[in-house]
Amino acid sequence: MESIKLKKPISEVIAEFKCEGCGEDVKQTRLQIPQGPRAGEEIIANYGCKCEDIKLAKQAIKQRNQLRKDKMKKFFDYYSLINENLQTATIENYEPTNEDLKQAKQQVIDYIADYDGKKNLLLTGSYGTGKSHISVAITKKLMEQGKECLFLSLPKLLTKIKETYSGNGVTEDELLQMIKRVDLLVLDDIGAEHHTEWANTKLFEVLDDRSGKSTIYTTNLGSKELRAQINERNFSRMMENTDVIKMNGRDYRRKDF
Prior knowledge:
Elements: E1 10-18, E2 25-32, E3 42-47, H1 51-79, H2 99-113, E4 120-124, H3 131-144, E5 149-153, H4 154-164, H5 172-181, E6 184-188, H6 197-209, E7 214-219, H7 223-230, H8 232-238, E8 242-246
Parallel strand pairs: 4-7, 4-8, 5-6, 6-7
Antiparallel strand pairs: 1-2, 2-3
């Protein structure tokens, strides 16, 4: 069988320069196609330029980040124990009803801007001032930054842990490991759970696992009441590296009245 010999294209370097886009040294080369239907046609090629590779890499990273964000949102929506009325909560649609709550909102905005993955927040104050609203809003902002978040009402979480004892679905260990790994955990409504030794033991396990990672707590109780409800050990652990934001005012849920 007769072998087919391919001719090399005739080439000539016509310019050398540093690409402004990628910073690589480029040889601009004139090539003449030696055979085929385009034989004799001249083309210009820039050898050494990485602009197209960089563009494709950026597109791949952007697509990967978007897939990760979509996955995190599904994770948040599936595992977070969140009331339906909080689904649409954002920083933008939180409307403070007094100066103290305006200041609290600004503190939260600053927390998001300076987020380091270690600082905790305790949102405390009277009923209906938007503590849960603000907390959900924080998770949404941080998920936009690629952070993995969970929002859990503590009373509902304790109920969820008890449900694992039936042996159906997720185990207690799997649930606690999931809580441990996320970048930000919101524990909502601390102090509203039924006060038992078991509840305080489970709360300590969560707090201990979260040591060194960001957690946001909300409560309607003052410090003395909260300490009595969750015990001194849990209260001490909660207050490690934690900034307190006081949110007192008239009931946010009844602001139209």
